[in-house]
Amino acid sequence: MSNKNVPKEVRMGSIKSVIWKNETEAGVRYNVTFGRLYRDGKAWKQTDSFGRDDLLLLAKIANEAHSWICNQTQDSEHLNRESQPQDSNEVQGSTRR
């Protein structure tokens, strides 16, 4: 089984964001794309163009994407801190003066 980079999608009505995780030399970075779904006859299509009535929903989706990315970043930082060895002073509870 391959370990593919499966994106996270946030959707409200016809507006959606797709969050992509990218592993870089500097660490994990997230990129977000936004789109609006519409129907052309029987076929569903997507555009990156938004009208006036789409903008508040787009802002809400951008906020959701931002919150999700922040949670992922906090979770990974928490895991990294747990896996690192503690400073001997922290373990013993002593402080330097």
Structural overview:
With 97 residues, this protein is of the alpha+beta class. The chain has one domain. It is built from two helices and four strands, in the order E-E-E-E-H-H. A four-stranded antiparallel beta sheet has the order 1-2-3-4, covered by helices on one side. The longest helix has 29 residues, at 55-83.
Summary?
With 97 residues, the protein is of the alpha+beta class. The protein contains two helices and four strands. The protein has one domain (8-84).
Short descriptors:
four-stranded antiparallel sheet; alpha+beta; 97 residues
Topology:
Blueprint: E1 8-12, E2 15-24, E3 27-40, E4 43-47, H1 55-83, H2 88-92
Antiparallel strand pairs: 1-2, 2-3, 3-4
Largest sheet: 4 strands, antiparallel
* Computed Rg: 20 Å
* Element pattern in H and E: EEEEHH
The low-pLDDT segments are none
Query: What's the count of strands?
Result: 4
